[in-house]
Design brief:
homodimer; about 70% helix; about 0% strand; disordered N terminus; DNA-binding
DNA sequence: GATCTATTCGGACCCTAGTCCGCTATCAGC
DNA sequence: GCTGATAGCGGACTAGGGTCCGAATAGATC
């Protein structure tokens, strides 16, 4: 497994003026590989930062310098797939990407997001669980929000698209989806149907 | 300020068989008064459990024995008002209580919930920020969910009322509302209008 | 290759939530 | 009142996240 530089998720952000030093890059890679392995082996909530540092063969200071905090590290682990997702809904094929009818794109967006949670929900829940409100201020939420709001603006020209975007994205928060899937035992398909019904209801 | 026994929020829960011992009741009261005072003075995120214990004149063990954890203490602080809220929407006057048209009741529910967040949002955010998903498993969410789902079931007989309840309550999560109010600067009235529009959209 | 500076490294340290268990106070029954 | 079982108390202790700063290293410049 190989990881590239940058821990951000919004697309074409300017790279740092000076490239990262060789030892720093080596360590970043070692840390992310170790973290990914430990998380896969033991589950995200049974991995401490000390263990990650130990497994990567670096000191704790290095770990925190690179990733800021635990949440930062987890987000970095999710970053690759998130970039793919963003690429798909911004420039990818319909129905997720441009070209399909707006309502179809929204449906596809939700279904894709639910699939992603199905795949790495635990990690996402933990990564969202930082300081209260932090996830909402982060790039990932911002990108999703901007995308959904833009589509809603097309779909319902008079409506408060920003508010509706938050409302819709609320149903796709990993915490909520995991609760519905595990605690309530709702099948994935039911959530997809519900999402579609929500959009149908709003656009009718 | 005086606080009564019990830390739960769902309505007529059976009281413990044997009433709490006198010293325990005294300590509970001292702790809650101290906690309420410290939170009011310094803001909820600047109060540690040690400080609360110190200010209440009890040991740390007592604090944790009574309230389980930090979240438990904060929830207990919110409990009185939450009980009032539940009383209002279950047995109170219309439009919040029974008697008004279902849609009106839902609108009133959301507006009341938003007002509550306006009043003690910080505390609520912090109290919701426990282990991921914990808030959803708690009595308070359960009670709100049951209420909203029941109303939705009446309003839209064919729909997936449980799913819709989660979707609607997502917009009333303290974390989201605080984000909209503070980070995005949305006025409270805009959130109330948005809530109403959401319900109009769904019931149309 | 020597030198110099900015960047990075790493582990000792701090803070706070939460646990544990021997000691103490309460109160029901006598 | 006395007494014994039971519930409650409290502070020393642990664990894990996050900080700090002197030491070490990369890599640009000469």
């Amino acid at each position: 497994m190989g990881f590239t530089q940058h821990g951000l998720a919004l697309l074409p952000l300017l790279e740092p003026a000076r490239p990262e030093r060789a030892d720093a890059a080596r360590n970043r890679n070692a840390i992310m590989c170790a973290a990914a392995r430990l998380v896969a082996e033991r589950g995200v909530d049974c991995v401490t930062m000390d263990e990650v540092a130990g497994a990567a063969g670096v000191g704790k200071g290095t770990l925190f310098r690179r990733f800021g905090d635990r949440i930062g590290l987890l987000r970095a682990l999710l970053d690759e797939r998130e970039k793919d997702f963003q690429e798909e809904f911004i420039r990818g094929e319909p129905p997720l990407g441009p070209g399909a009818p707006v309502c179809e794109r929204l449906i596809a967006f939700g279904e894709r997001a639910l699939d992603e949670i199905e795949l790495q929900g635990d990690l996402m829940v933990e990564a969202e669980a930082g300081a209260p409100g932090e996830r909402l201020l982060h790039n990932v939420y911002g990108a999703h929000r901007a995308h959904v709001a833009a589509l809603v603006r097309e779909l319902l020209p008079g409506a408060d698209s920003d508010y509706i975007a938050d409302a819709l994205l609320g149903t796709l928060a990993a915490e909520v989806v995991i609760y519905q899937r595990r605690a309530l035992g709702m099948p994935l398909q039911r959530l997809k149907d519900g999402w579609r019904a929500l959009l149908d209801g709003l656009s009718r």
